[in-house]
Amino acid sequence: MTATALAFDLGGTDLRAAIVTQAGEVRQALTVPTLAREGVDAVLDQMTSLAKTLMAGTDGTIAGVGLGAPGPLDPLAGIMVAPPTLSGWHDVAVVKRLSARLGLPVFLDNDANVAALGEWRHGAGRGFETVLFVTVSTGIGGGVVSNGRIFHGRRGLAVEIGHMTISGFGPTCLCGNVGCFEALASGTALGHRGADAALRPGGEKIAAAQSAIGRPGARAVVEAARVDDPVALALIAKEAEWLGIGLTNLLHIFSPDIVVFGGGLSNAFDLLIGGIRSVVATRAMSAYRDVVIVRAGLGTNAGLVGAAGLVFTPSSSATREDRHQT
Amino acid sequence: MTATALAFDLGGTDLRAAIVTQAGEVRQALTVPTLAREGVDAVLDQMTSLAKTLMAGTDGTIAGVGLGAPGPLDPLAGIMVAPPTLSGWHDVAVVKRLSARLGLPVFLDNDANVAALGEWRHGAGRGFETVLFVTVSTGIGGGVVSNGRIFHGRRGLAVEIGHMTISGFGPTCLCGNVGCFEALASGTALGHRGADAALRPGGEKIAAAQSAIGRPGARAVVEAARVDDPVALALIAKEAEWLGIGLTNLLHIFSPDIVVFGGGLSNAFDLLIGGIRSVVATRAMSAYRDVVIVRAGLGTNAGLVGAAGLVFTPSSSATREDRHQT
């Protein structure tokens, strides 16, 4: 019989759940809009209900429950601290509460770490010893899997790469500093530069893309670049430069065997990778220049596959109980 | 009988060797000037000779040989690649050659990783799960020990923190980039700023310290600061700011339980720590602000104690043989 896990990908918009096999196969995925404004119990009720539906439809044993959730959270203590997209979730012992409801061991980690684990187990990072997963969307996040373990650091707070200072100038970040990787290189940052360009002469193609999409954002810049708009291409080149500077730092810091590039902006990976590689070739020390940089392989399933991975690679996880046994 | 290891701390100036107990006690340390310009065999002869002297004086069994050496080197393959301070050392399979000479297993790692391991086992980082060791001297290096293992990354090249870009301006680094942590915050950088200040009005105290020492450098700035020279104190404050910016990045990236500050500039730790903490308190996200930052505890013995640690914590080491067994 195939070993399976129950996997949850909890976001501020959608709550996804599935049975996932040890081989990374996603079965019976269900998605519901997260009751994000209705507090902890409402969401735990949703999860319990999804679990019952999924478990009723499976004939095998469920080895455990994996939960990928928005940070900040403490995977070591099994506590979600204060996710900005979920109202009322302050210091919630979600591992304990969900485990009591489902009668199964629960493993928690933040969404970027879970996606990193998923890409290492079954995606673009498979077979590599040290995998750096970087997700570039609204913000920039990351996760490192090394020797089969998520690199957690104190309170599971490691690889908060979005707030790495890479410049002495630039827009002020939400964190209050200037020069954060995220403030310069996130999809949001690219979208802002696109919105500015759309107001200036030459920005007509970007402006048209914004109108067609219904709002400004990175996607409008990417779509204009895909029809060879020179202004959009210049913005993409600048975006690749900032990404390259940040990634070069991370190459020196983690020396990954592979960089897996995910998040919304990975849809423009083909447009960005040339510029990123050029910056790495210029800025990285020679021993780091040939590191493989690829687009994430699991797409929207990374969260589910990775959450199941928390169950199947227990040493990768770090619930307090588990750590004390090792 | 106490388990002991034979430890080498190989530098471009000095070669140190000692018997080190499993408890981290350094016995019979010997130091000779490294025959750095005379090639590989000359240095291996020195090591063999020191080993024989030390082993003749010990009554117990030597569990193995630990070697801390200048990078770049590949601890996984046991190869020293091209240390700039040792002539003729290009792609030397030092683990294999030294093991053949001494008839003992040999464990190799770079000096910053070895010092990190030493501080974790027996120094300021003892008892902490994730230790970030930062050494600030001529350059800036680092090592991370997490869950009892040195964080190596591909080819053992991780934690090359000196070439992390933290600014868009500043002096050009030896690596060719602008804005490297090392180019802005190393002892060398502080010494250059001191030498500039010494030539300007108000720089008399620093100039006097340079004359007394015999050359410009960070030490002259530190000595002038110790007698409350305002120009030197301003340079120390700027140095602390750069160190704080770089350390804040590393707090977000590694989330260490403790930062252990070593290297030559750790002699000025008391002068720097206030400014460093102030920058961390301003720039780090709140969850990272209370991380302990302390001065290294082992001083010049960190290399020897850490090299022995490679023998006594085999999972921390990463020679190819060892890794393939795990």
Automatic annotation (TrEMBL), chains A, B:
A Pfam family the protein falls into: ROK
Q: Which InterPro entries match?
A: ATPase_NBD (IPR043129), ROK (IPR000600)
Say which family it is in: Belongs to the ROK (NagC/XylR) family.
Q: What is the name attached to this protein's record?
A: ROK family protein
Species this chain originates from: Rhizobium quercicola
